[in-house]
Amino acid sequence: MVKHVILWKLKDTLSAQEKVDVKREIKEGLEGLAGRIEGLLEIKVHTEGLPGSNADLMLDSSFADEASLKGYGIHPEHVAVAENKVRPYTELRICLDYVADETKPE
């Protein structure tokens, strides 16, 4: 299994209410991809970090394999969400992709 984790920082120019609305739209858009993209096993967007956090949102997703992750990256439904709901409102993106070893405890 491959994990795909992203942290985003929203643009500082957004008002508090705009940030609430944008986080909701990103969450609905990305989580709405569940069951629609081959090899996407799980997708969850976390929007309520603790006060000490320096990111506004986190995507936590799992894929069957690296090929599935690559397919997700170019899938038209994912591209539409990224282009219309994520990129216009974010100023920083940090990504970590890794192979999850389910047999070893962390």
Describe this structure as you would to a colleague:
The structure is a single chain. This protein has helices at 16-31, 66-74, 76-86; strands at 2-10, 40-46, 57-63, 90-99. The relative contact order is 0.30. Helix 1 (16-31) runs antiparallel to helix 3. It contains three helices and four strands, in the order E-H-E-E-H-H-E. Strands 2-3-1-4 form a four-stranded antiparallel β-sheet. The two termini are 15 Å apart. Helix content is 34%, strand content 31%. It has 106 residues and is α+β, with helices and mostly antiparallel strands. The protein has one domain: Alpha-Beta Plaits, CATH 3.30.70.
What's the short version?
The protein has 106 residues and is an alpha+beta fold. It has helices at residues 16-31, 66-74, 76-86; strands spanning 2-10, 40-46, 57-63, 90-99.
Distance between the termini: 15 Å
Task: Report the mean per-residue pLDDT as an integer.
Answer: 96
User: Which regions have little confidence, pLDDT < 50, spanning 5+ residues?
Assistant: none
What is the string of SSEs from the N terminus onward?
EHEEHHE
Number of strand segments: 4
Which CATH class applies here? Alpha Beta
Shape: globular
Count the DSSP helices. Answer: 3
Main sheet strand line-up: 2-3-1-4
Percent strand: 25-35%
C-alpha Rg (nearest Å): 14 Å
Look at the helices and sheets and give the structural class.
alpha+beta
The biggest beta sheet is recorded as:
4 strands, antiparallel
The structural domain count equals 1
* CATH-defined fold name: Alpha-Beta Plaits
Instruction: Please tell me the CATH architecture by its name.
Output: 2-Layer Sandwich
* Residue share in helix: 25-40%
